[in-house]
Amino acid sequence: MTAPAAREPLRIFRWRGIAPLLLTLVLVGLLYWLFADVLVRRSVEQAGTDFVGARVDLEEADVRLSEGVVMLRGLQVTNPRKPMTNLIEAEQIVVNVRMAPLLEKKVIIDTVALRGLRFGTPRATSGAVEGREGSPAAEVARAVDDWLASLPIPEFSLEGLSQVINTEAVAAESLATLREARALAGLADSSRAAWMAQIEALDPRPTLDSATALVRRLEGQTIRSLGLAGARDAATSARRTITELTQLDDRLAALQTGVDSAVRQARQGLVALAEARHQDYAYALGLLNLPSLDAPTLGPSLFGRFAAQQAAPFLYWLGLAERYMPPGIEAQLHRGPDRFRASGTDVLFNKREQLPKFLLQVAEASLEIGGTGAAAGDYAAKLTDLTSAPALVGRPTTLSAGRTGGQVGPETVRVGATLNRVGAVARDSLSALVAGLTMPTVTLAPLGIDLGLGRGTTDLVLRRFGDSLDASMSWESGDVTWRRLSATPADTAADTAQAPALPSQLSLQGVAGAVRSSAEGVVWRALQGLHDVRIEARLSGLLARPRLAVGSNVVRALADGLQAELGAELRRAEGEVRARVDALVQERVTTAEQAVQGFQSQVQERVAAERARVEQLRRDLEARIRALTGGIPGIGG
Amino acid sequence: MLLLKLLQSLVKALNSDGTPGQVGAGIALGAVFGLTPLVNVHNLVLFVLAMILNVSFPGVMLGWAAFLPFGFALDPLFDAVGRALLTDVPALVPFWTWCYNTPLVALTNFNNTIVLGSFVVWLVATIPLFFLARWLVTRYRATVYARLQETRVFQAVKASKAYNLYTMFHP
């Protein structure tokens, strides 16, 4: 027999693996040292692109870990709403970063100094990003675009005046009033049948008949005629019947409450019918494309799109702040990093007295825009406490910027903003005033006119509290220019001449053509003499979908001019349209009204009558009891 | 070349490198690189362990390669597991908060649903995976290997001149 071979002892560590391990770690360190700049450059580009929702390009990054300094050169941030334009461009950015928080994956920046800032510079290539539909920036952009698309901006077109006013185009089946009237009549009829059935089911007749018979039987009876025992029995019977009548009345009262509610609902249906008819008027007028000459309608028609476009960037940046700077300290959910694998979701577990994931304590920029351009001058800006978790920092983010000097360029540039998300409810405010800067040209497409606002003053005041937004914007200029988009010298000459008088008796079609040709001249004459223009817009309501109201002295001048010369004809045309709608819906509306009236009279009055009869019988019985007992106690219990 | 090396490592792992237990441990350890997103601190730590522990390094590579497709395929599951652990268990919130706010630990990215979910799934599966892999390697060596080594493909792979880095890590 041979002895079993000794079992080799279990070796846990592979010591000869240490050398290659160290070699690998050195290699990793070396690679990081070689490529740290590239990594930081790409990280800045990726994080910036994710945040802005458009390309962020960086020429070079220089990481000096020992000094805690990162130098960035050639930063270009694309304007997400204008991909061929940079929102901001910076020649050099010096960032002082705290090193220790990096071990917690937290970026705490003490100071940032920016040099060579420029705004609105053109890009060589488009900065639009594709394939980021799920990113916060893309979602915010989509929400703003949806808001823009859904704004109820009424159409205004002089083209409508050239059309034949054909009221036959208004089709009955398209009218909401008819649909609602049919539904209301059906509801009233079915409600009447249902409530009548309930009254029948309640069956008050036996109780009432029995009480009536008792009243008759006791009529003229006294304690003498019935005797003591007979009077006691009669009084007891009468009191029992009164109790039954009271119970019946309670049931009828409950029924009456239900009936009254149903009647109210039916009558509200009648009010809704009237509203539907107004909607149908608007719908029918819209079919005929007749322009409204009311100033409140004209304002949004002419300047609504312009004002909304100007407001959209503010809503976009507020939306982004909402995503990246949420109020409160609850765990936040963010999309995970892009990688070959699924991104997943990053959950940020913020804790008081801990550092936020990102904090920029102070960023300062000063720039000098040379030359004699519209924006020439010296500017300074300061941003403080920009962070991903304001509740941890305990201070609001502030931004102040302004013009500090210069001989040419705008007279005043003053911007101040506070994003206060320290508490559970966001409170943001922004005010901006730019005076003496050339403002954009507004194309009034419905009128075929360009309005050059020239040098003027732009003012913005915005306040946000929780989900509510209240913002007012104004553009004011005393140096506007008007230009007809398709003007010819002949047009201009004709415009300056006296407008032809409107014929008083024309066929509707003839009136329309004459009205239109006259309208263009009226518009031009009303506006070309206007040199001072003020446009005001107000956003209010929910931040996600604020309402927009727009007004302007241009609108008032235009409305006055058009009303003076074309108002009567348009009102007549509108009257015909309304008459056509009335003719189509009146019969059905009358039927619905009768159905509601029938429901109310038959059911409500029936219940009221039954209750009145119950009450009368009860009083009669009480009178009989008094006559029977003659005030003697103990009779009838 | 890469494919050849992979085949080599497969052959070595299954046929000659170390005991079935060492190969099984290597496969179980290597599975983490396939199941979890690669660039994370926990993988660096486990890579260091794979190098200094006396497990089959080709087994590690085999585990990595074998579980890589599962990593991609099971991402929705990992996401659900990670989300449940991070957001649906209040008792764990203090722990996650500590992880998130502690130097170096924060670099593990365990606050990401996929990273945490895949890591936890791997952690749970490691021991069963080790025993399963050890049993399979034993069965393989007893039954398949004898016939396989007669095939031309096997001979070609075994005779390849390509340098085998993994010899340094033979147990």
What would your notes on this structure say?
The complex is a heterodimer of chains A (637) and B (171). With 637 residues, chain A is of the alpha+beta class. Chain A has ten helices and 18 strands. Chain A has helices spanning 18-52, 136-150, 176-202, 205-218, 223-288, 295-324, 390-393, 489-496, 508-528, 553-629, and strands spanning 56-64, 69-79, 82-97, 107-119, 332-335, 345-348, 358-369, 377-387, 397-405, 412-420, 427-438, 441-444, 449-452, 455-465, 468-477, 481-484, 533-542, 547-552. Chain B has 171 residues and is mainly α. Helices cover 72% and strands 0% of the residues of chain B. Chain B has eight helices and no strands. In chain B, helix 1 packs across helix 4 (57-73). The radius of gyration of chain B is 18 Å and the shape is elongated. Residues 165-171 of chain B have low confidence and may be disordered.
Round the mean pLDDT of chain B to the nearest integer and report it: 83
Helix and strand composition category of chain A: alpha+beta
How many strands appear in the DSSP assignment of chain A?
18
SSE series of chain A: HEEEEHHHHHEEEEHEEEEEEEEHHEEH
Helix percent band of chain A: 40-55%
Largest sheet of chain A, in brief, is: 13 strands, mixed
How confident is the prediction overall: mean pLDDT of chain A?
82
Q: What characteristic shape of chain B results from the CA principal axes?
A: elongated
The portion of residues forming beta strands of chain B comes to: under 5%
Distance between the termini of chain B: 24 Å
Largest interface, C-beta closer than 8 angstroms, per-chain residues: A-B, 35 and 39 residues
- What is the count of helical runs of chain A? 10
